[in-house]
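**Polypeptide and fold**
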Amino acid sequence: MTALSKYARLEATGLWRSAPDAQRREVIVSIGDATLVISDLKDQALTHWSLAALARSNPGTHPAIFHPDGDPSETLEIPDSEGEMIDAIETLRRVVERRRPRPGRLRFAGVLTSALVVAAVALFWLPGALQDHTLRVVPKVKRASIGAALLKKIERVSGPACTNARGRTALAKLGARLSSDPMVVLPAMTRPSLHLPGGLIVLNKTLFEDYESPDIAGGYILAEQAKRAVTDPLEHMLATIGIRENFRLLTTGDVSDAALTRYAEHLMAEPAPEPPVEALLARFEKQRLHSTPYAQARDITGETVLPLIEGDPMNGKETDPLLNDADWLRLQNICGG
């Protein structure tokens, strides 16, 4: 302790009492190695008090009276004339107090650190872990139910799904030809196509009414299949609607009506993501379908879809039509003309 060396040779007289009923004795007080040494007038040590456990019974008043911390029965009185010794003892007590461990501070620091760790876990790890767990446990039936509920929300904006019986039969034939999950056609969707949880593929009627061939609609169906292979539509929905609805789905098996409405609006407003080119071309090759008509429907100039045109797996090859003419006409009229 640096302060000890400053007062190492300091001595003073005082009155020491070993017990409440003992006679006070005149003693010599000196500062030792982290102790206060009390000696008689013959320089024989009577006791040592630890500076770390030294208390003052009358702070701010004189003469100064000190005692071991926790034992006020033993006292040392130092008169005002020994002000330098009093100041020295007070200085050393303050130094010791500053260096004393602060359990309360350590406890607060520990609690604060724990709170920050919990907050970090809740902020960064918990949402992803909760989402991954939900995706693992939600059954196919519930996914299909969520997809159907989302379709109802989308129909509020796009109009109800087209129900022409002959057109729906032709749509089922197209789906079987492309190994597709169930499909529906909407009359006024803001996107040409999308896929929903449960495997449902939703198509805009313009894919049938605005083109002379079913190849364009077929391309969009393959594109939705390729996108679904990359990103689970339920995962996208959970990431969008937030951890609260994620927890609700996990615990109750349902998603709130407000969350479904909000997500349906999000789907209608966000730009349609594009599938990976290589994976999509592989699907065109597997189905023996030209990718060029689909690419040109996306961009008539061909500038942004050049890989789909140059990589057309059926380029220069003969392919069978997706539908016969009669079924294609029925499909073009699925929404009533």
Notes: The chain has 14 helices and ten strands.
